[in-house]
Amino acid sequence: MKYNSVINGDSDKLLEEFIEQGLKFDLICTDPPYNLNKDFGNNSDKLSFEEFLETTRRRILLCKELLNPTGSILWFGIHHYIGFIQSIMYDVGLNYRRMNIWHYENGFSRSSKAPLTQYEPFLWFSKSKTKWTYNVDDVRIPYKSVERLKNPIYYKGKNGKRKIWRPNPNGAMRGDVWAFPTLAGKVYKKEKTKHPTQKPEALIMELIKAFCPKNLDGKYDGSILDPFHGSGTLGVCCEKLNRQGHNIRGIGIELESKWCEVAKSRISIIE
Q1: pTM of the entire structure?
Q2: Of 84, 94, 33, whose CA–CA distance to 63 is shortest?
Q3: 155-168: pLDDT as tens digits
Q4: How would you write 177-233 as a 3-class SS string?
Q5: How do residues 223-233 score in pLDDT, each as one tens digit?
Q6: Contact 72/126 with Cβ under 8 angstroms?
Q7: What gap in Å lies between CA 256 and CA 10, rounded to an integer?
């Protein structure tokens, strides 16, 4: 299998082939069709509710089989159905880690009868109950209150004794809300493609840094699969990190040839 490539094909069939070939992945990060009747060039987003759940279960089972023992799945969804997908993951024996939120302030609404949608949820489940990758220090964020950090913060330790908490010089721990703008407006013109559900590179880059295993030299050194590669954002991010000396082995699968070409083109123009 050639890594760092985009495969034009049906992921439902290719995942089965990957299992037969004995392939394993440290991270499966994917943004499958949400079943919202969007036009991807096929009918993959236009299933009945029952078909959608059945198809999702089959795909999750295949992904579980492809995970390394300490591997994780990041599965993007939409609030309509994310609860059903979470139940499926529990049911097939995966282990819940977090319900994460991709929050964006520059969302929009076609209706005035409900609040503006400014988020998309994504699930994090691991294969193991006790071992998984999360690089906490790689995705720290600035502290919001600098003034608060000027004074000592005391707390009780496990033995009941008072301890002093000190801020981490690299910033605060990231929470489960990941705030990144959507690709709206002229500022994102160079990054934006015509794909209807393209995710921003800034978000996907942060997810790779958080969930990809690292080697003893501190470099990202893991295998990542995206079964619904779309316009190729995950592949672009992997390539950019590899050009910085990392060793990420990525594979993207995309059903529509036109999006495969878009993904390849985006990688080809990386400076």
Answers
A1: 0.92
A2: 94
A3: 888 888 899 888 88
A4: EEECCCCCCHHHCCCCCCCCCCCCHHHHHHHHHHHCCECCCCCECCEEEECCCCCCH
A5: 999 999 999 99
A6: yes
A7: 9
Q: Which two tokens stand for residue 178?
A: 């990941």
DSSP reduced 3-state for 29: strand
How far is residue 46's CA from residue 2's CA, in Å, rounded to a whole number? 32
Q: Under CATH, what is the fold of the domain 5-72+181-268?
A: Rossmann fold (3.40.50)
What tokens appear for 52 in the block?
């959608």
Q: Which residues contact 32 (CB under 8 A, 6 or more apart)?
A: 56, 59, 75, 76, 227, 228
How far is the CA of 262 from the CAs of 130, 179, 193, 236, 254, in angstroms?
39, 26, 8, 11, 11
The residues spanned by each domain of the chain are 5-72+181-268, 137-172
